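Supplementary Note 3. Input sequence used for the single-chain structure prediction.
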Amino acid sequence: VHLFHKNVTAEGYNFDNRPFQTLEEMHKTIKTNWNNTVTNADHVYILGDLAWKENEDVISFVSKLKGNKHLIVGNHDRVKDQRYKQLFVEICDYKEITDNYNGLNHKLVLNHCPIFTWNGAYKGTIHLYAHVHNNTDGLLYQESLQKLRELCINENIKGFQIKNPPYAFNVGAMLDYMDFTPRTLK
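The predicted structure, written as discrete structure tokens, is reproduced below.
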């Protein structure tokens, strides 16, 4: 999300081409989208880089976001202030959860950065990540996974065909399908 980071808006060099002229405009959009989507009973998993700095403004902003917030720490997160820490149900580097969608339970691995292989990758566990924004790293990562899926589906690896090849999804807030809005697994 990169709250309070001017370089994700036109105020800076807008390194991932967000549609915002100012931080104020971005913050308003994020807060409105979040609070119109999330209830106080919902659990929201934030996959890192929530805020550029940990300060009074960030603490105030995050405290106004609905839901039970779980922070999977990213490379820009600083979580030292106890007032900030208490805004989260948990703070961790990596998380495995199960979510229900369409009547089926789905195992998920949550991490800030994409990882090439993860627990349950060949057993249907889905990996959700952020970090790479809209850059070449993310494209190369997905191309590699696609090649791996093709091998799993088309080839017998040592006489064993993998029925559940690995799938991973970038859930960065700036992606078109995310639209700066918290999303369900669906």
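The mean pLDDT is 91. Residues 34 and 182 are 6 Å apart (CA to CA).
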